[in-house]
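Example record

One chain of 208 residues, shown exactly as stored in the release files.
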Amino acid sequence: NAPTGMLLSVEKIKFLLNQFKGLVILDEAYIDFADENSSCLNLIKIYPNLIVLRTLSKSYSLCGIRLGYCFASKDIISVLDKIKDSYNIDTITQLIAEEGLKDRAYFNINLEKVKRTRTRLENELVNLGFKVYGMNANFLLCKPENGLEAKDIYDYLVDQNIFIRYFNQKRLADKLRISIGTEKEIDILLTHLNKLVSEREMPFEPNF
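Predicted structure tokens for this chain:
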């Protein structure tokens, strides 16, 4: 789920599929960042009403080609094939996608980097007094519980040319979403967060 990074278990998805006989469309855009065996892809063999959506924008780092795809039963794919545009994906996009899917070694290296950096960022945020939510995507949703306000942190970071996500809406206005960048980018972020928290914790000294 975006923006929480929280994941519905396979068992809960099975429960939904058993209760509802219409089409069930499951978005697995971030599934590669979750634990193994979190995907429901194999359930297509059991539930012909299931469609699983995927994208190359996240774990394959190919957001520029804007390519999404789905898995489903032969009957569903046949219907989708009849109603899609004749030239919905250009040749260059197809070639890039094919090469990206083939290069599993590069994919696995990048994926492990993101997971490792995500774990590091989670630990650092907890130490700085943040509550961190789901660990199943290439971002973290966190809530400051150290006396600081989410909007104030966001504004402070923007002044430092560091851009994270702030959602000014119900149930999210007290939280921030931080994408997992490179180690260097996370170093810069944590340097400023540590400075902000330290200044918040400094005792007040009256000036006589």
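Notes: The two ends are 53 Å apart (CA to CA).
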